[in-house]
Amino acid sequence: MSRPLRIEYPGACYHVVNRGNQRNRIFFSPDHYELFLEKLRLFSEEFAIRIRCYCLMPNHFHIYLQTPNGNLSRFMQSLLTSFCFSLNRIRGKSGHVFQGRFKCHLVEDAAYSMVVSRYIHLNPIRIADAKSFSLDEKRRMLDSFKWSSYAAYVGKSELPEWLDTGPVMDKLEGDDNELKHRAYRDYVEEGLLRDMENPFGSAESQIILGGTEFTERIKRKYLLNLNVADSKEQSDLVRLKGSFTFEEVLARTARCFKCREDELLKKRSLRKDARKALMYLACKYCKTNLSLTEIGRRMLVGQSGLVRSKNRFASELDNNAGLAGKLHQIEQEMKSIAGV
Fold first, then answer.
1. Among residues 53, 206, 260, 301, which one has the fewest Cβ atoms lying within 10 Å of its Cβ?
2. Residues 176-186: pLDDT tens digits?
């Protein structure tokens, strides 16, 4: 089985997720949830892991954590192996509990800890049945869900010693815990009022959740000179090495098409081919740094309009050799710089 690329260093923060084998249930009874939480406590103490928040759903789990010692893989292997062994023994079963190795996203904690915690805590109301619920029903569902750290964050349950809520709660206004609990509840409930964009995009398109400066620093320090043999790791590494900031893609596109950068950002630009090329290239090379919504915002179009323009441009390349040549020139230059 191929291994996902892991970026590990002391102090790194991660969003970790894993699903049941073939998307089957992991937890069949309250005792199974309790077992996982007890294992989480034991191994977080053993490996000095700081658990920020978590949510256990019937067939998957989410954990946000920090690794002061840069030991994510060792911690997760011990946690999941021990849990699987104990769960199978209790149920009289054998075989795989999880679908494979865990997935993780490296997170820029200072900028995204609030966003990540809200995303994790809103998981219980993302189930299909909850889509038709009223706002009050969603609030009750969120409050009554037992298998996440949300209750501890809003002061509805005792705070476990192993749960490190400080880095998130310290970002909230308020002189006492009660005010901070209220502020956090209000922040999370914003996600009940409107559809919140998944901060991680799809699991295949994003490995790092962070701003441009953070992402570029991680790439320079940990990735650009890294050689890996595994095909999945190579794929992830190429994707990271081959990512660029929007500004870099904009500059190269403008230079190739011999036009001003600001002209490509106008909604009614006269340089339509160049503008469509920029949309195409930004979607392809900036997706590690920016979501489609963020790219569209810079181009003054919605996400659906951005995707339609990108797809139309890709179709046009087959019948326009001149346009395809310019695109090839830009991509070759970018790949050469990235070393991929």
1. 260
2. 889 999 999 99
